[in-house]
């Protein structure tokens, strides 16, 4: 039985960017049900109190979209009794490990070389486009699982912004949620208390200098242009959302209807 979440958002000590996706409006006047779909950053640093709160939600499945490099850096998720953990990496560690090592370890000159002059934002746009085009099997698996039995569900990656943000967005598209509401939910990851904590290896005074933080900011921002690039990729590759869901993700109208029954009021 789905539990109703508290009316105030919990302050979790070791989990960033947690929220219930409930309440978002659909184009046909319905709303996403509270207590069935949550999103967050990783659960590796969850405290005992955080774990107790998460356990109280009656979760069926946690979808972890981190890759092996993320899990090595942050650690495995805290285990919650009776909850199924599904790891579906949405990014390739071989593609990004060297880049993220430079983000953590690089000096100012290195960071300028890889991030300045719009390169950081361009990398994010390219990543969102790649995940939409190349991770159709993973997104298909998530939607079919939600339609069958996997709610209440929590989706997370490292920061809960990009890979989880895209999976939540794809789920909301399948439910018929208004596009503006999908973007608004995505942009909530920019709130100061939600943002991923940047870990820099250097202990020098310049490691967190204003210029360094400005160079890094496109990587840790939720920007409408990133999500727009994902939507544009759907339209370029499949023509429209319905075709993307049916042909790209193999989600039939019947499966979408089951999804809507499970996740909408």
What does this structure look like?
The protein is an alpha/beta fold. Helix content is 50%, strand content 7%. The chain has 12 helices and 5 strands. The protein has a 5-stranded mixed beta sheet, with helices on one face. The longest helix is centred in the middle third of the chain and has 16 residues, at 119-134. It starts with 18 loop residues before the first strand and ends with a helix.
Which residues form runs of ≥5 with pLDDT under 50?
A: 1-7
Task: Identify the CATH architecture.
Answer: Alpha-Beta Complex
Widest sheet: strand order? Answer: 1-2-5-3-4
Fraction in helix: 40-55%
Q: How many discrete domains?
A: 1
Structural class, please? Answer: alpha/beta
CATH superfamily: Protein tyrosine phosphatase superfamily
Task: Report the average pLDDT across residues.
Answer: 89
Q: The CATH topology, please?
A: Protein-Tyrosine Phosphatase, Chain A
SSE order in H/E notation? EEHEHEHHHHEHHHHHH
Strand content: 5-15%
For the CA atoms, what is the radius of gyration?
Answer: 18 Å
* Biggest pleated-sheet summary: 5 strands, mixed
Distance between the termini: 15 Å
Number of helices: 12
Globally, the shape reads globular
CATH top level label: Alpha Beta
Q: What's the number of extended β-strand segments? A: 5
């Amino acid at each position: 039985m789905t539990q109703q979440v508290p009316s105030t958002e919990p302050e979790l000590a070791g989990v960033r960017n947690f929220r219930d996706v409930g309440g978002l409006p659909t184009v046909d006047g319905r709303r996403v049900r509270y207590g069935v779909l949550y999103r967050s950053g990783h659960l590796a640093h969850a405290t005992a109190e955080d774990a107790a709160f998460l356990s109280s939600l009656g979760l069926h499945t946690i979808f972890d979209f981190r890759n092996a490099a993320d899990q090595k850096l942050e650690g495995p998720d805290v285990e919650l009794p009776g909850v199924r953990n599904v790891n579906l990496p949405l990014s390739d560690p071989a593609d990004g490990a060297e880049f993220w090592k430079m983000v953590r370890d690089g000096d100012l000159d290195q960071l300028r070389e890889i991030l300045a002059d719009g390169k950081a934002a361009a990398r994010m746009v390219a990543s969102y486009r790649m995940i939409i085009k190349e991770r159709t099997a993973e997104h298909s698996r998530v939607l079919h699982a939600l339609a069958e039995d996997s709610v209440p569900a929590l989706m997370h990656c490292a920061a809960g912004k990009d890979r989880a943000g895209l999976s939540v967005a794809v789920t909301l598209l399948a439910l018929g949620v208004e596009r503006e509401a999908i973007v608004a939910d995505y942009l909530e990851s920019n709130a100061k208390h939600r943002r991923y904590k940047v870990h820099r290896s250097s202990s020098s005074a310049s490691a967190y200098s204003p210029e360094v933080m400005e160079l890094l900011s496109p990587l840790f921002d939720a920007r409408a242009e990133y999500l727009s690039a994902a939507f544009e990729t759907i339209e370029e590759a499949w023509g429209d959302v319905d075709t993307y869901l049916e042909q790209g993700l193999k989600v039939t109208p019947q499966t979408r209807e089951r999804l809507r029954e499970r996740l909408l009021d």
